[in-house]
């Protein structure tokens, strides 16, 4: 038995709070909020959920929360808008640099990519 929510299989051997975090856009606090509003115990494992509880979770998520593809596309549109209007954050996105004030002299390899060595210019000897 596997439980499928918005096209993603969530693990059935884990607690409900943890299983819902496998969906993109749902963290631990949001999954707690979802389960509390539906009335499912947070410590109850997914395989112990009834069919009614599973359908309630699906309905709640589809009606009130943006997840997966819809959320990813919204984030990409926001980034594209920032780039188009030429804001500082948009320029940093375009250049592939960190966005939130981090120093770039030594670190930020995740954002900048693999180090590329640039050779020194030749000096003219007089």
Automatic annotation (TrEMBL):
SUPFAM superfamilies linked: S13-like H2TH domain
InterPro entries in the record: Rbsml_uS13_C (IPR027437), Ribosomal_uS13 (IPR001892), Ribosomal_uS13-like_H2TH (IPR010979), Ribosomal_uS13_bac-type (IPR019980)
A molecular-function term among this protein's GO annotations: rRNA binding
Single GO BP term: translation
Lineage: superkingdom: Bacteria
GO CC terms, sorted: cytosol; small ribosomal subunit
Pfam families associated with the record: Ribosomal_S13
Membrane recorded as keyword: no
UniProt KW keywords: Ribonucleoprotein, Ribosomal protein, RNA-binding, rRNA-binding
NCBIfam families reported for this sequence: uS13_bact
Family under the similarity heading: Belongs to the universal ribosomal protein uS13 family.
Official protein name in the record: Small ribosomal subunit protein uS13
Organism in which the protein naturally occurs: Blattabacterium sp.
